[in-house]
Design brief:
Elements lengths: L2 E8 L6 H14 L3 E6 L14 H12 L5 E3 L12 H11 L3 E8 H4 L8 H7 L1 E6 L5 H15 L2 E6 L7 H9 L10 H10 L4
Parallel strand pairs: 1-2, 1-4, 2-3, 4-5, 5-6
Helix pairs in contact: 2-8
Length: 201
Amino acid sequence: MLEKIGIMGGTFNPIHNGHLLMGESAYEQLGLDVVLFMPSKNPPHKQDVMVASGSDREEMIRLAIRNNPHFQFSDIELKREGLTYTIDTLAELENRYQDSDFYFIMGADSLFELESWKQPEEVLKRMHVVAASRYGMPMERLQICKEMYEDKYDARVLFIDVPTFDVSSKMIRERCQQDKSVRYLVPLELETFLGKNKLYC
C-alpha cells in the first residue's frame, strides 16, 4: 500500500497556528501517514518580501511541530540552490520517498495560481492537490477551478474543511514590529522564540 505523504510548503515567515490547523485537518480528513513541513528557500513569488533566514525558519517550524508525532520537518527546499520550484521538489521527493503518494496542501486562494507554476501539467500529473477552503471563498468558484484542472490536466484536486482562523504570516510580522502580542496566534514555544530573538522587530 502506498504511503500517503502530505506536503505543507511555503515560506513560513513565520509559521503560525493557521498552518498547523491546515496540516492537522488534511492529516485527519485524508488519512495521511505523515505531513512534511517544507519551507521554501527562494520562492519566485516572494522576491519583494523580507524573509527570515533559513536557519531561523527551520528552528521556528521545529518548535511549532515538535509535539505532534505525525508532523515532520523537511529541508529539501532549503538545501537547494537557486529559485524554488515545485516540479524540482517533486522529483526529489519521488527519489527519496519511493512507493508514496504526495498530497500538496494549500489554501484555496493558491488553487487559482497553479497554472503560473513551472511546468503545471507535470506537477498536476504527479501529485494530489489539496485545497483548504477558508476566508469564506465561494465553493462554486473553487468547484469550477477544480473541474477545469481535471479536464485540462487530468489533475486530482481534493478539498478539505478547515475551521476559519484569520491569521497570516504578514499579520504576525506586523504585530512583532508594533510590539503587540502574538499569543494564541502561534504556539507558545514560538511566541517565546520571537520575543527572545526580536526576529521581526
